[in-house]
Write a structure and sequence with these properties.
125 residues, binds zinc ion, four-stranded antiparallel beta sheet, elongated, single chain, 2 domains, alpha+beta
Length: 125
Amino acid sequence: MMIGNAIFGTAVPGTFLLRHGKAPHFTSTDHAAAAWYECTRCGEFKAIRVGDVKPGRTVSCGCKGREGFIAHCKQRVSNLPRGTRKQMRRLARKGVPTGNIAKQFHLDKYVVSFTVQGQRGNAHA
Ligand SMILES: [Zn+2]
């Protein structure tokens, strides 16, 4: 983060995170040190356990995983035959629950959500 000419936060090598001040403990029984981290991918601030922030563990605020998941679902959807996608949308319009459509087509319900609702897919619908 830049304020004037000063850079705040300490970069953690191998991650997208900048370390800021000390954060409160997560619970009264969890005494692991936590700090505020700024995600340089999306700008979000999040309290994370200091010991978790390292390559191969926590490398972003969680946006990296979310984007990977969305890309994965989109890829699965685009691999489906056009006719299948049409049928799924038709069932969804009739009010058939996402879970039932998923079972019928032997697909993950997240993939069904993305197919019938596009990118805004709500997996809990
Ligand atoms: Zn982020």
